[in-house]
Structure formats: C-alpha cells, structure tokens
Amino acid sequence: MTKSNHYSVFAGSGIHLAFSVMVLAAFFTMLSTIRDISIPILTITLLIGVIYLGIGIYGYQWILARTDLSRRILYFIIQIPLGMGLVFLDGQSGFDFLALLPLVGQSVILLQGVWRQAVNAIILVGYALLTIIVGGGWQVAWANAPVFLAGQIFILVFTQMALNEEKAKQEVQQLVHDLESANQRLREYALQAEELAITRERNRLAREIHDGLGHHLTAINIQIRAAKAILEQNPHQAIDLLNKAEVLTQQALHDVRQSVAALRAPLAEGPLIPQIQQILDAGSNGGIRTSLIVIGNPRPISPQVALTLLRAIQEGLNNTLKHAHATEFQVTLDFESPSAIFLTIQDDGVGGMTSTQNGFGLLGMQERVVQLNGQLDIQSIEGQGFSIRMVLPTEVNYDQNKNYAGG
To answer: Which positions, given as ranges, span the membrane (predicted)?
Structure first.
C-alpha cells in the first residue's frame, strides 16, 4: 500500500477547500490593504494568485498520486516562490502569511524527515526576509516571525494528527477485512470438515453393509448348497439347513433395514413430512405404534433445520425402541410461530433412562441445536416416559437447495 493510499483523505475535496479558503483569504485581505495599486501590479498579482491556487489544487492532486521524491520537491520549488511573490506584493497586510500556510500542511503529506524540515525552514526564512524587505526592518520581522512560526507548528501538528488518525482508520479497516477473510476461511474449513465427517460416516456404514450383509449372504449360500447336496439322502438335515438359512436371511434383512435407515432417513432430499413418516413407519415395523401430529401450515425451512429435526426424531425413536419398553411413540411438529419451529417427541415407556443422557446421539443432537441458536430440553422421568422438546429458529440462511416441510 502506497503512502497516497494511506493518506487518501487528504487527496479529496477537503484539502482543496482548505487550500482555496486560506489562499483566497490572504489574497483578498492583501488587495483590501493595498492603496493606489496600478493596473500592471494588480494584473501580475491576480496572475500569480491564479497560478499559485491552480497548482496548489490540481498540481498537488497530480503529485500526490506519485511517489518519486524529485517531483514532490519540484512542486515546492515552484510553489514557494509563487507564495513569496504574493507576500512581496502585499507589503502591508498582517495576514499575508495565510497564503504560505497551506504549503506547510502539504509538506507533511508529501515529504518526510529532512526534506520536510528543509521546506518549512525555507518558508520561515523566506517570510522573515520578505518581512524585512517590505515591512520596514528587523523589528517588524521579529514581531511577525514568531506568529508565523506558531502557525507553522500548529499546521504541522494538526496535519500529522490527521495523518495518524487516517492511518489508524486504514489499519482498522484492513484488520476488519482480514478478520472477515479469516472467518470466511474458517467457514470453508468447517464445511470441509463436515463433508469429510459425512464421507467417513458413509464409508463406515458401507463397510458395515459389506461385512454384515456379505457375511450373511455367504453363510446363506453355504447352507443352501449343503441342503441341496444332502436333500435326497437326508431330507430332515436338509430342512434343518434351510431353516438356518431362513434365520440368516431374516438377520440379513434386519441389518439391511438398519443400514439403509441410517443412510437415507437423515440425509434424504425432498419434503420433510414424508421423510419423518418414513422414519416412523420403520419404527412401526419394530412393534411400536407411531404417530405424527402437524400443527399449523408447513413452510420452507433450511436444510440445516430439516436435518436437525430428522436426526432428533431418529435418535428419539432409537432410544425408545432400545430402552423404553414403550407401546406408543408420538412426534408433534408445530409451525404456528412465524419465528420458530417447535418439535416435541415423547413415548409412554418406563422413563428414568438416565444412561441415555450422556449418549453420543443425544450429545450430537444438542450440538446441532446450539449451532442453530435453538433450545433443547430432554426429560426422562421414571414411570412418565421419555420426551424431547426442541425449538429451532426459522431465520436461518439457506441456499438454493431448499428443503420443504410440506408434502
């Protein structure tokens, strides 16, 4: 970043306005104090004033966009004599030094170190000499020079403070930009980590299907072949082998259903209500009555909210089937609130399942709800069943892959 970018505030209309006001104030003050001025002198004064003002605005703007020192020094080599010319033509006014002060402020912006000090020393000495020449001697110079020096110091300090403030503002803006970039990278890393976790989970389930189902099918194939081989010689033993194959088939079917449910139910695309019904239908096959109650009109929701709801229902159903000894499992989905979605899961089991409070499924459910700025309440009271109450906000950023709650 170049220095002109750091101090861009001084390249706008503000510095031009300040330069114009100070030069014009000195110029008109000078004209108001001159007596019996001749036309040639007035013409020269006006010409110098216009040139000085034009270079101070447009020349400064051009120089500010360049970083080479020689051009910046050349700018002051041209402007200082022009400013001194206006002071020389004045000769009477006590406000003629105003025409030189803009150069002091510009020296802070364009120059550094020794060059800045040299330019300001030249301006001070030149003004003092002009005061001696046109003002009546050393006494006038000693009287006016301290006033001009005080103005110089004030402009130098004020301009430097403004530069420091602008630099600090630029640094803060850069920090904000860097933080936004870092947050964006963190979000991308989080998405990559989530995708990696999903891929690993899918690979794990694929291995389970391969190992479990493959084992069962191999064993079934062996049983059937053995039964065919001894069917004519020993029918009773062949039937026994076929019975074993049937049991293995049921076990394999059960494993397939579990694996497919784990793979498809939470991650399936499409309307939310049918996905919930599929999970509940699978629970009904496990010997428990399931029901779904929808309150209000289903509306579009984000994939994150839909996934969290599906995970919660699946985890609640799994806990009920494993631990609750329940006969009924009920899911209530409430869309009446415009700002939130309410999910209630409950069964009529034995309750008091404190061991499930620290389970990985419930812990993952809680983490998802926290990420969505939602609320989660889990109750498991002995003799009163098991219940989950979840509140998720409606206003969640969702992309083009919208998941709809309606059928």
So the answer is: 7-31, 37-60, 72-89, 95-115, 122-141
